[in-house]
Amino acid sequence: MRHFGHIAPAVRKRLFFREPAEFTPGSPARLLSAALGATLYSPATRPRLADDVVKQGGRGVVSMVLCLEDSINDADVSAGEENLVRQFADLAGRPGADLPLLFIRVRVPEQIPDLAHRLGPAVRLLSGFVLPKFTAERGLPFLEALTTAEAETGHRLFAMPVLESPELLYRESRVETLEGIFRAVDKYRDRVLALRLGVTDFCSSYGLRRGPDMTAYDIQVVASVISDVVNMLGRADGTGFTVTGPVWEYFRVQERMFKPLLRQSPFHEVQAVALREKLIEHAMDGLLREISLDRANGLLGKTCIHPSHVLPVHALSVVSHEEYSDAQDIVRPERDGGGVLRSAYTNKMNEVKPHRAWAERTLLRAEVFGVANEDVGFVELLAAGLAD
């Protein structure tokens, strides 16, 4: 699989200076964690789930979570498990299908080895499990169960803990909770693919819900948690993990209080005014702003609940030609001693030592999402994806 692989080769050649690389479920964890992109959630009870997975894979989705937790009724868990077993068997019978990385979101640790066993040979299609309301106390049994399932099946399985518990939100317990989470995931570092932020649960603790004109970063009590999670769990010194962005809840706006957040000029320049209007109609201007803020705050990838959110996440994850040029200049072997240099675009200073971690992360993102051609921006990427 590859990002933008659903777009015609001739179009990709026009868009990309360096095309996204191919990867598989067996690729190194570091590469997969960066490649998750827009992780699309789907209830595990959907009767045509296998068809949905194949369809979304063909439309550019590279990671999906099949959910047995908050997205389904408590009374439907057993039926959801049975449906997953049937649907995985269906997918296993479709050789050559373009499947995304598949994860199952469970409720309790016991579900992990049980489901891995019940999937039988189809477990080879499973990349791992999403672990809800993760803290050190509640999370370790999940990680132990994952290790057991991996040993019993002989198949590599990853964990994606969801950070969404009240203990993490409340100021008086936050640091202790984060320290415990770090100890737990550090112990199982080779099996933790990414940490996911459950911002909806954070808002719930205070009876809040952000509107389509607001990003998660406008809700200060939520923004403070994101900041502390990145501070303690997302460091670039080798101790950190990939932390993914929070879910965007909206896909159509009935009424607006504030002006749209998208500038007009980038759309006029490429004759895509109708695209701008469509994005605004479907609340995508707020989503695009939040994706930009995610990346500025150290997050990579995003939880998504609607297929229309996938392309914006991926389009804004593509590395610009300018970013790529700066990053390459910074990591050149002859720069190992440090120093300051003017960027090739002659518009900024690149200071080698302070900017090196940024450059390394940028080059990893470039590998999986590609590098845009010099004259290509996010509007062209969006337009090409929507036209396909």
Automatic annotation (TrEMBL):
Gene3D superfamilies: Phosphoenolpyruvate-binding domains
Keyword line: Lyase, Magnesium, Metal-binding
Top-level taxonomy: Bacteria, Bacillati, Actinomycetota, Actinomycetes, Kitasatosporales
GO molecular function, one term: lyase activity
Obligatory cofactor(s): Mg(2+)
Keyword Magnesium belongs to the record: yes
SUPFAM superfamilies per record: Phosphoenolpyruvate/pyruvate domain
Signal peptide positions (record): none
InterPro entries: C-C_Bond_Lyase-like (IPR039480), Citrate_lyase_beta/mcl1/mcl2 (IPR011206), Pyrv/PenolPyrv_kinase-like_dom (IPR015813), Pyrv_kinase-like_dom_sf (IPR040442)
Protein name: HpcH/HpaI aldolase/citrate lyase family protein
Magnesium among keywords: yes
